[in-house]
Amino acid sequence: MKSEVFNGQRFWTYFKYDFTQMWRNHMKACIGIGLAGLILYMVYVIFSLLLGNGWSGPGIVARLIVFILAGTALELYQTRTYGYLTDKRKGSAWLMTPASTFEKWLSMMLMTLVIMPVILMLVYLLADFLLAAIDPTVGQSIIVSAGEGFSELANGLVGVNEEYNTTWTLWTFVPMFLIGHVFNFLFFLLCGICFKKNKILNAFIIIFISSLILSAFTSSFAINYYSDLNLHDFAEAEAYLRNTMNTSLWVTGILGVGLAGGVFYRLKTLKH
Asked: Is the pTM of this model over 0.85?
């Protein structure tokens, strides 16, 4: 007897269907966003030629900025990937798809948090690597520069740890980076399946209101905390920084779990 909550074969069948639909409707846009670096390169070269500066490609800073903007654009795009669920015809057809709510939710999480971000990164970084290999005016690729930068930062942290008897590593910052992006992707996904119209606008309204409330709370807390904090004492300042990072990590993680739960609840209660 098949489980009504999760069945491996049924989930795999639905996941392949979901991936096909995602590829047909949205993966081309994801790849297009990933090619933003190539668009930057062409625009930069054209303007360089028009201004009489000769053939010159964009430097590493400009390409990194566009890479960050491309990631942000993909986060915003999550309001569209499953936004069709609020449409009566398409949403009703999705409800009739033979899979449990949990299986549909799990597939949605994999598409949103793994497949689409990985495709974006592969497309952008591969295009950047090929441009750097073909055109020497571009300089080093982001991958090579990032590798060297991480190596230098890791060596610097080793020196700091030896001098001040601390335990900082690059892995200290990785969870914050990942959980922050997971939170953003889930937030815009939830807005996409909750609002029928003006999905991005409504998302930014929520961000604005939440920022006002959070700023008022954190400002009050910071004033009281800073009054007794001696930042000239390295040990005390380092402990404050670590505690702040850990608190932010836990709060963001809990909110991320809440958003994932909110997505599941929305799918469970979705009706037309």
From this structure: yes
